[in-house]
Amino acid sequence: xxxxxxxxxxxxxxxxxxxxxxxxxxxxxxxxxxxxxxxxxxxxxxxxxxxxxxxxxxxxxxxxxxxxxxxxxxxxxxxxxxxxxxxxxxxxxxxxxxxxxxxxxxxxxxxxxxxxxxxxxxxxxxxxxxxxxxxxxxxxxxxxxxxxxxxxxxxxxxxxxxxxxxxxxxxxxxxxxxxxxxxxxxxxxxxxxxxxxxxxxxxxxxxxxxxxxxxxxxxxxxxxxxxxxxxxxxxxxxxxxxxxxxxxxxxxxxxxxxxxxxxxxxxxxxxxxxxxxxxxxxxxxxxxxxxxxxxxxxxxxxxxxxxxxxxxxxxxxxxxxxxxxxxxxxxxxxxxxxxxxxxxxxxxxxxxxxxxxxxxxxxxxxxxxxxxxxxxxxxxxxxxxxxxxx
Length: 390
Hints:
The protein is mainly alpha-helical. It contains 20 helices and two strands.
C-alpha cells in the first residue's frame, strides 16, 4: 500500500515536472486538470485520486508508481472492470432501460475514452468503461439509429484495448464480436473495415496467422474504393495490419506487397486518426519496423535502418509511438545491441508507461537484458522489477 504523505507526493510530482522543464500550466493542460488542482497537489494540500495521479504520470511520461511508491491503481481498476464488462456483454442484446446520459453527453464521453485509448491510459479507461458501454447499448436499443451503433463500436473498441492489453483474450474476442454486431446496424462499410482491423487481435492471440491474413484480405476486397482520404485510410490500415500478420506467418513476399500498397495509400491520406485508427505515412513507416521484426532473421536489419534515419513524431498517438520503440528494442537485442535495446525500452516507457508495462515483448526482453547484464545493473534491475520481469 502507498505510504507517502501528500507533501512527499507533491514534491515528487513538482521535481519530475521541473526536470522536464514543464510549467504548472503545461502540466495542467497535458493532464486535463485545472491549474488550481495541480498547484494544490504539488503544494501537498491535496492527495490525487488514482485517476488524477495516472493522468499526471502520463503527462510527465512516467509510471504512476514513480510518483507514489507502491501505487497499484491501474491494475486494481482494470481487474475490477473486467467482470463488469463481462456482465454488460452477457446482456448486450437485451434492452435494460434508457441510457443515463443524453446523446450529446454520450458522444463526448465516447470520444474522450477513445482519446485515452490512443494515449494508452488504461487505468482511466477502466474506471468508467463498463457504464459507458452499457449506456451506448441502451442508446442503440432505444433509438436503433446508425449513430448509436457507431458509439457502441467505439466504446467496445476502447474496452477491448484494456482487455487485450491485460491478457483477457476471451473477453477481448467477445468485445470484438460486439463491435461487429453493432457495425452491422450502422450500415457503414468504413466501420466494418475498422472491425476487421481490430479483429486481427484474436488471430494474433491464437497465433492463427494464415487465417488472420485471409480475413484481412477479404476485408480489403470488401472495403470501399480508396478515392478519398477516409477510404484510403481504411484500406491502408487493413494493408498495414495484413503486412504484419503475413510477417508473423513468415511470408515475406506477401508482407512486402501489403506494405507497399499501404505506403501508396499513405500518400493519399495525411497522417491522422481515421475511424479511431492512426494512419498515414508515419504509421506506415512504423509498420515497416513491425514487419521486419515479425519476419526476423535477415530482415531485422531493416528495422535498424528505419530507426537510424527516422523517429516517430510526437503528434502520433502515444500507443503507436511506444510500440515502435518496443519493437525496435527487440530488433536491437537480436542484433547484439543490448545497451541500445534497454535505451529503447526506457523511451517506450517514457512515452506510454502502461502500454510498455503490459507489452509481453517488453517484459520478455527486459528479462533477457537482465540476464545478459550488459547495461547498468541497478537501473536495469529497477526496470525489470517495474515491468514484472523478476
